[in-house]
Write a structure and sequence with these properties.
alpha/beta; Rossmann fold; Alpha-Beta Plaits; 2 domains; five-stranded parallel β-sheet; 12 helices
């Protein structure tokens, strides 16, 4: 449901506005606040589609509220209601701090018209964002990694790397002796693009680790870094020289260029045997309950899936 948040320290005016909106735009959920600080607290937890706020309010004026809302990364359409001169406001607050001005006094026809326009802009903005996201994720989704690997946990990991990592940092993580998460993410994109271009396979393996603190005690290791290094030393002999590996708590990810699904599953089996031989528990349902638990899954982008890509890209009826 479309959410509209109205903020005005004049409670009578606020109630009147809300009554009109609930009557004329009954498909929308209308939330009202007499305090901009309370409205901001609500918006930190709830994303709204349109914010309608008065300008002159104590503690925080409407422009300050809109500025803080936008700083949260929210893309709500923001309408500022004011009795001041629009020209003076634009001069004092240049740029795109607010999306539209509603000058007092105004008719409710003007209010409804501006809200309808704002909601249309909001809808178009969301559509563009969804298209951009779909285009960015298309190589991953088409790659078969969309089944599980780019399920929310792994997609969140890669997204976190892109958002937070310094992509100019070295390729090697000196602490663990593996590739950095940033470099690994870059190579994932490169290998997926290459696989699509040349109709080749590429696979990834995601290894989930259990309770590192308990595992340290069991193996007599005091530092997480030493424990991770031990795990990586067990894994590396089962990798090719062209494969890449990175650690991002609580998972280890392997990238296997030009590796088929069968090859990836074979690597998973070898890894399981190697870890089991070192006394590391392999996760199997209820057995995955203590110490350093290892579970893994391979995800492959095969030529067959690539050939089905055009069918996936057809618009839905």
């Amino acid at each position: 449901m479309v959410l509209i948040v109205c903020v005005d320290d004049n409670e009578t005016m606020l109630d009147l506005t809300a009554d009109i909106l609930r009557l004329e735009r009954s498909e929308c959920d209308i939330k009202t606040f007499v305090s901009p600080t309370q409205a901001l607290a609500f918006l930190k937890e709830n994303e709204c589609d349109l914010l309608l706020t008065d300008f002159s309010m104590p503690v925080m004026n409407g422009v300050d509220l809109i500025t803080q809302v936008k700083s949260l990364g929210l893309n709500a359409y923001c309408i500022l209601v004011t009795g001041s001169s629009p020209y003076a406001l634009r001069e004092h607050y240049p740029g795109d701090v607010f999306d539209a001005l509603l000058k007092k006094p105004y008719s409710y026809r003007e209010l409804l018209s501006l809200i309808d326009m704002g909601l249309k802009v909001r809808e178009e903005t969301l559509a563009k964002q969804e298209l951009k996201t779909a285009e960015a994720e298309a190589p991953l989704e088409a790659a078969g990694v969309g089944r599980d690997m780019v399920a929310r946990d792994v997609r969140a990991f890669l997204g976190k790397v892109w958002d937070e990592a310094d992509l100019t940092s070295p390729a090697l993580d000196m602490e663990y002796g593996c590739q950095t998460a940033a470099y690994f993410a870059v190579r994932v994109k490169e290998e997926l693009d290459r696989a699509m271009r040349y109709n080749r396979s590429v696979s990834m393996i995601k290894i989930n680790l259990g309770d590192l603190a308990q595992a340290r005690a069991e193996f007599g290791i005091t530092q997480d870094a030493e424990l991770i290094k031990m795990i990586l030393r067990i894994i590396r002999p089962n990798m090719r020289s062209s494969d890449l590996i990175t650690f991002q708590h609580p998972s280890v990810l392997l990238l296997l260029p030009e590796a088929s699904e069968d090859m990836a599953e074979h690597v998973v089996q070898r890894l399981s045997n190697s870890l089991r031989s070192r006394g590391i528990l392999i996760a199997k349902g209820a057995e995955a309950n203590a110490g350093l638990v290892f579970s893994s899954r391979s995800y492959s982008f095969t030529p067959e899936e690539q050939r089905r890509l055009p069918d996936k890209s057809k618009p839905r009826e």
